[in-house]
Amino acid sequence: MTKHSDQSPPSTAQEKEITNLEGIKGSESGQLIVVGIGASAGGLEALQALVANLPPNSGMSFILAQHLSPSYRSMMVDLLEKGSNIPVVAARNADKLVPDTLYICPPSYNIEVTKDDKILLSLMGENRHIPRPSVDMLFESIAVAKGESALFFLVQVPMDQEEFEPLKGKADLV
User: What residues pair up with 96 in beta bridges, in sequence order?
Assistant: First the structure.
């Protein structure tokens, strides 16, 4: 299903590198596949390239958490929808995830996914994760809610392997 950059098997952390998103489809079991995307504040160009390559009929939902200043007025929805093959929307609390849609976490909030495929937004300061929105918090919630029906992309986010510990054994890391 996924393409690897080389023929070696995935590591113990089940890391996979996807070099081409074509052919990746939602789960045949009917379970929604949720793709978490984490980006640093400087990741706009990389995000635009990623979003431009999201397949239009994959059957997957995509959620973006990008580190932003709480006082920053984000124009990310407008900037990313121009080159996208799928709808790009601002995430709202309790929204039910829809396949083939990219949800953008609003500034001043953290974003999570529930087991019933809904978005949970929490104001900054209500939890322990810094910076915000917390990519770790998003990825952990997707891993718990979706298990093997989860994929993750990191775009210009400098993280070390210790930060992936909560995800090991719960989902594939892309």
Answer: 118
CATH tag for 33-160 (out of 3.10.20.70, 3.30.70.20, 3.40.50.180, 3.90.700.10)? 3.40.50.180
Q: Among residues 79, 69, 78, 73, which one has the least CA distance to residue 44?
A: 79
Q: Is-contact 88 153, C-beta < 8 A?
A: no
| Model pLDDT for residues 44-94, shown as the tens digit of each residue | 888 899 999 999 999 999 999 987 766 666 788 999 999 999 999 999 999
Would you put residue 68 in left (φ > 0), alpha (ψ -120 to 50) or beta?
beta
Check: CB of residue 91 under 8 Å from CB of residue 104: yes
Classify strands 101-104 and 33-39 as parallel, antiparallel or unpaired.
unpaired
Give the pLDDT confidence of 133-160 residue by residue, as tens digits. 788 889 999 999 999 899 888 776 444 4
Bridge partners (DSSP) of residue 35 are 62, 151
Contact at 8 Å (CB) between 80 and 48? yes
How buried is 162 (Cβ within 10 angstroms: 0-12 exposed, 13-18 middle, 19+ buried)?
exposed
φ and ψ at 32, to 5 degrees?
-65, 130
Task: Tell me the C-alpha distance between 173 and 153, whole Å.
Answer: 8
